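Q: Make up one entry.
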Amino acid sequence: MNVTPSATAEPFEHPALFYRDADEYLAGTVPFLLEGLAAGEPVAVAVPGRNLELIRGALGAAAAEVRLIDMGEAGRNPGRIIPGVLRAFTDLHPGRRVRIIGEPIWPGRSATEYPACLQHEALINLAFSGRDATILCPYDLHGLPHEVIEDARMTHPVLVDGSVASASAHYALERVLRDCNRPLPAPEDAAVMRYGQGFGDDPLGRVRAFATEHAARIGLKGERLEDLRLIASELAANSLDYGGGSGTLRVWREGGRVVFDVSDGGHIADPLAGRRPTPIHQLGSRGLLVTNLLSDLVRIHTGQGGTTIRVYFDVDGADPLEHLKSIEDAGFAGSPEDTGSPEDLANA
């Protein structure tokens, strides 16, 4: 399948591949990968485990030349995919055209996760505009709801079905981003504290203590509890610096997840905030990036009236940094020579 742009076209392409079964999946993905290898392009595949094994088997010996990533692990948090998977790979190959298959939406994604998945697909178009890359996104026509397929038509400028590639008549980037920025439902039985101006001394220390105490009480432990502590501190610091000087922290349990959110009077104007790899020496403006790297899901609502950032941790979840490190052993951010690994960034 040839989706390589012409010399005068936008260099970045973001097609959706519609498939109905394993045969159609392989027919749409394997030739795309082999074309890239034949052209000398760096090639990566980031798809859920079962589909990853299908592709690995179909590629045979050529699989050794392809970066293979289990999206079910590395992309569990959709907000992590652009900085920790896609940019992590493309930035290792400056000056070269790159080919990636990315499948962030699969049967089994929860209703809570899906808006973040949809937002991610829309933001790919902003994050890679003007870059010399193709990111092909498979969609399971039989396994995914009809509404998800319709959304794919709005987030992908090109649609591929079988051997036919066509421009999407429904592409609507701004509409999708607007629809994904909706107020988040209020939690039930949350522990609540206020911090910042007028609410006592040492606001960050109080936030860290409150967040870890309540998260531990409802099931989070070990390294994940330390991750939550770091994120809560980073987000509260953003409130103090950019959110009007104060904020509200809430912590609660939601099914198998510990959840907390931070609300303040700030407004996030940059839709890609938290999705750009940040050099290790840049100490500021990294709170949202650290949040995306270390948590299992992030939801954000922002407007002129304020911002809420909601962060989810699977109680039994593994450390996400282990999966990020496997992508390219410390080759994480925009300038590989001066950025460090995901773990370095999180602990800086």
